[in-house]
Amino acid sequence: MSAERAETAETAGTDVLVLGGAGVDTIVYVPELPLPYADSYMVPRVETRAGQTGNFVALGLHALGLRTHHLDMIGDDDAGDLVRALCAERGVAFTEVHQSGGTKRAVNLVGPDGRRLSLYDNSRSLPEDRLPEATVRELAAVSRHAHVSITHPCGYALPVLRAAGVTVSTDLHNWDGEQEYHETFAHQADLVFLSTTALADPERTMRRVVERGRATVVVATAGAEGSYLLVEDRLTHVPAVAPPTAVVDSNGAGDAYAAGFLFGWLAGEPPLRCARYGAIAGAFACTVPATASDSIGRDELLARAAELETA
Fold first, then answer.
1. Do the Cβ atoms of 266 and 144 come closer than 8 Å?
2. CATH number of the domain at 8-21+52-101+126-310, out of 3.40.1190.20, 3.40.190.10, 1.10.510.10, 3.20.20.70?
3. What SS3 class is residue 166?
4. If pLDDT is split at 50, 70 and 90, which confidence band does 2 have?
C-alpha cells in the first residue's frame, strides 16, 4: 500500500489496528548469555528477517482470525522491503509511511536456552517523525481496537485514537515503572501490558498505572513464572503454560501473549481466560526459532485452552 494513505476499502471492519513496531532483526545464535568478551566467535547461524514487536502482534492476531491492519513508518531500503514482503506473504494489510531515517533495525543475540538480548539501533527514528493524523483517523474509524507500540510517533497518535472512540492497548515491555516516556502510553490505554523484568515492585507499578490512567486491565508478564493480572483492584497470578515442544527462543513471546489476550478480550471473554489464551500463545512462540515468525492458530489455541480447563 502507498505511503501516507489508508486503503479503507480493504480495511472496513478491521478488528485491530496495530500502530508502530515494524522493523528488521538480525538474529545471532551465541554459545552463552551473557557473552564473554573475545576477539571473535564462530556461531552456528546469523540471519536477518523482518519482525519486531508490531509485526509479531499483527501476525499473531491475523493467525487467530482477527482482521488486522498494521500502520507504521519504514524506509525505502532493503530492510523495508523485508517488512513489505512479510506482510504481503502473510496477508496482513499494511499501510506504510515514509521514514527518512530508514527502517528500524535490531540485533538479537540468542543463547542455547532460548533467552535473548536485543540491541536496538536508535539512529533510524527522527524527532520530527509522525504518523499522519488523517491516516490514523481514517483507519481508526473502521477499527474496533488499536494496539499501540511505544515508538514516539505512536505517542502523538494516541489523542487521535481516543477521539475516534476505539479502545486502546499498549505494551510497555521492560519499563522500570519510573521513566516518564512510557507514562504517555501507560496512562492513555484501556489495557496495558508490561514485563516484570525491570520492576522492583510489579504490583505497585500495576496499581499506579490504574490509579493515574484510564486502564481497567493491567497485565505483567513474568516469563516462566507466568503473569499477573490486575482487574477491579484484584491481583491474580496466572501460571505459565508448558510449551507444546522444546523451547528454542523467547523472542516474540510477549507479543504472542498480547495477541492471545486480545483475541479473548475482543471476544468478550473474562480477563482470566484472556490471560490463559495469552499464556498459551506465548508458550507456543517459545518453540519457534527466532529466524521464523510462525504464530499459533485459532483452532490450536482453543483446543489447548479446553484441555487446560478440563485438566
1. yes
2. 3.40.1190.20
3. coil
4. very low
